[in-house]
């Protein structure tokens, strides 16, 4: 069975949480990446910055829904969730705009599971971890290359 370690890209361009959003956006565009892993000083994955994270900065802030009870306004939307949305829209660093706790795969994850995650969850890029550290990434192109190679 083909595994992540067989098809992943090992030379990975990464970002740090303090990278400026504008620099990250230029890198995504210039290199044609859909997403870039975000790592800390020890090389541990702390998030992923996707093109959609940057596009969300252009969205209007969703206004929370309220209901009234005994003449009081009670928000239906969590204030914590609202605060995170505000931070993403106003983000100046990758750490503020990134998706924390991204879905990852391991070195021995099979190509079928990787393909399922990409199709079912809409992921374009999956970080590959080896003992908690970033070992590479698998993108849709890596999966397609494998399929073409079989034909």
Architecture overview:
The two termini are 16 Å apart. The chain is of the alpha+beta class and 151 residues long. The strands form 3 sheets. The protein has a 3-stranded antiparallel β-sheet. Strands 6-7-8 form a 3-stranded mixed β-sheet. The chain has a two-stranded antiparallel sheet with strand order 3-4. The longest helix is centred in the first third of the chain and has 11 residues, at 21-31. It has 7 helices and 8 strands. Strand 3 (66-69) and strand 4 (72-75) form a beta hairpin. The chain has a single domain, classed as CBS-domain. The chain is globular, with a radius of gyration of 18 Å.
């Amino acid at each position: 069975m083909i595994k992540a370690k067989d098809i992943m890209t090992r030379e990975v361009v990464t970002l740090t949480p303090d990278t400026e959003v504008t620099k990250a956006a230029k890198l995504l565009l210039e290199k044609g990446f859909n997403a870039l892993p975000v790592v800390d000083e020890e090389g541990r994955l702390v998030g992923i910055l996707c093109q959609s994270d940057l596009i969300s900065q252009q969205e209007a802030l969703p206004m929370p829904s309220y209901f009234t009870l005994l003449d009081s306004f009670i928000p239906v939307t969590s204030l914590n969730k609202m605060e995170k949305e505000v931070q993403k829209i106003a983000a100046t660093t990758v750490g503020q705009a990134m998706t924390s706790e991204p879905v990852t795969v391991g070195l021995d994850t099979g190509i079928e599971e990787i393909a399922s995650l990409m199709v079912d969850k809409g992921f374009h890029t999956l970080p590959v971890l080896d003992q908690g550290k970033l070992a590479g990434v698998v993108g849709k192109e890596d999966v397609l290359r494998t399929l073409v190679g079989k034909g």
